[in-house]
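tool_call: predict_structure(chain=1)
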Amino acid sequence: MRTVIFLLVTAAVVIALAWGLAGLAGHVTATLGNFTIQMATPLAIVAIIVLVVLLVLVLQLLLGLPGRFGRWRARRRREEGERRVTSTLVAIAAGNQAHARSHAARARRLLGDTPQTLLYAAEAARLAGHEDEAEALYKRLAERSDSSFLGLRGLFRQAMARKDFDLAALHAKAAEKLHPGIEWLRAERAELAIRTSNWQQALRLAGPESPTAAFAVAAASAETDAAKGLKLAGRAMKDAPGFLPAILAYATRLREAGRESRAQAILRDAWKKDPHPEIATLALAPHSDPTERQKAGSKLAQNNPGHPESLMLLAQLALANNQPEDARRHAEAAHNAGFNQQRLWRLMAEIEAKHGSGGAALITSKDALRLASHAEPDPVWRCESCGSQLSAWSAVCPVCQTPGRVVWGTAKAAPARISAS
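tool_result:
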């Protein structure tokens, strides 16, 4: 209704003005050089109004052209820049170093130094191996309030690649302040803790798939406080009850705390379930006298008397205590039980070399060494990830840096086609 009234009022005003102009008397004469124009006053007023309107339109058109051209040019630059950004991303994904750097540089010229162009330029430089250039770009990202985390992440990755763990820790700390508890950062900080042997930190940051028992054992071994070390070793035992390194660490800490009987009970129970040479080494460590060691070893072996490891232990202790017949008997019993590893034949060779008599003993010793060369390999600590053989257990493989993959065992081999006779 308001619109109708407004239109009616406007029409009435226009009609009134037109009526008023039409009623004006007189003429208007304009002379320009040799030309003279004469027209009625109402017509002259209308002509002047039309002329002013046309002049305003022309001025608007002329004055607006630079702005419209600028906006058109900016739109073209933005569209081309966005295409370059996409091309950079595709080139990075394809591993095309030259194209990635070229497109990234062009995108920066077209769009300026935005977080997106800086990040892609840094990634392109890193792909091409220009680490200094990438670092400078990551630093520019880190200095901006809207992209600090992106820059810190890039700097962190570079520091980790250079094994500059102190600098990596500073970048991780700064990134943690920006986004506390973010999953990516948690995983990276856990990796940093592992690489710097900060086992308690690795334990705190461990995810559901992490080898927490291995981290706890390493933390217990590194802990200088006896009570804290015992607690960490106990946690390892709780996380993985049958985990040999945890058993050894816990028994060691119990011994250090003066709880020898408890330590021995842990070791005897472990021997009963799964005998291992390192269990025997730790159990017999308090004894230096060969007779005492043999008594302690016999007590340990009674927890699993028929196992080849028990028989091997008894044979080694008997030999050390100058009892060759007992040593030979236990070694042969181990062989009869199906044990055919190289260490058995080396032990047999040692028994015959030290306590055999005459030429026959020498021949028997040589035969044992020959059999050793064809027997099954001895078990060792090895990394399941890279296959490296290690002299001792480690929470992280020192070769491939994989955590929790060092195990005790032997590579599979064909059965030795030999006999004990």
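agent: The chain has a mean pLDDT of 84. Proceeding to next step.
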